[in-house]
Amino acid sequence: MSPDLALGTYRCQDIPRAVVHAVACGASWIDTAPNYHHGRAQTQLQSVLTGNPGLRVSTKVGFFTPDVATAAGEAGVLTSAEAASGHCLTDRYVAWQSRRNAAALGRTPDIVFIHNPERAARPHDAIISAFTALEVEARAERIGGYGVATWTGFAGAFTVADLLDIASRCGGPDHHLTAVQFPVSLVMLKPVAQALDGTGPLIEATAAGLDTFVSAPLHGGELPTIVTDELAQLIDPGTTPAEAALRVTASAPGVKHVILGSERAQHWEAARRVLALPPLPDKILHEVIDVLGA
Asked: What residues does the NADP-dependent oxidoreductase domain cover (predicted)?
């Protein structure tokens, strides 16, 4: 089955407009965070989510804006040292931020991701603290479930098996760990190479029944300008560099959701066409990996 599209709000300036185009092209998920769009992304989504009850939404805990740091400090859930770091995953802060997220969104988040736990001095301890709080939130039905959104965490800080073990310790066999999110692109090809060998986070998460959200498939919009015509034609003759790059990401075994951040209708229409195509043959993916040295 082909992966589906999700809207990521990290780089969006006009979030309601982006949602309109994303939904028109079949996106069923929106991914956001309390620090996106200068701290306004979640509140800008509230009316959109009210008008589209079928849309699912994931948000995050970890990073915060200065305004949120001030509010958290006044609430007694963030120390001055934690506020200065710009990132916190203590159980008291995670519970507070999760409830604040729900209020900003105007609905219960389907997933709350802990955001880049690899930033913590002790990532495993930070994950334990956050999972402990989020299990309480999930059992109280204030969130649907939780996950981990990471940029480099699977490069050595932790594995999917580690996350499952921690979730079981925090929540027992009926824990609410439901998803992982991490980048997969022509710049971040290691997960693709691992998946083709039957290893790595994509395969491990899928085997465990976790949802897989892949972020930055176009590496923040940079890939269309750096993918050569020769590489694009190797991947899929006749396609644009952006389409070729997206097709590699969508073809990786185990990918369920591809997160795009765009406000342009033509970008979403192109993405819909690409994701409707069958996966690239493993042979092509191996050739791309060999060319790029992943």
From this structure: 17-135
The beta strand positions in 3-87, using DSSP E, are 4-8, 29-31, 56-61
Label residue 237 exposed, middle or buried (CB < 10 Å: 0-12, 13-18, 19+). Answer: exposed
**Helix, strand, coil % in the chain, rounded to nearest 5:** 50, 15, 35
- Only one residue has tokens 């939780």, namely 146
pLDDT beneath 70, residues of the chain: none
Contact 166, 128 (CB under 8 A): yes
Measured in whole angstroms, how far is the alpha carbon of residue 2 from the centre of its chain?
18
Taken in order of first residue, the domains within the chain and their CATH numbers are: 4-292 (3.20.20.100)
User: Would you state the structure tokens that stand for residue 164, as one six-digit string?
Assistant: 């499952």
Q: Which helix (H) or strand (E) holds 111?
A: strand 111-115
Rg (CA), the chain: 19
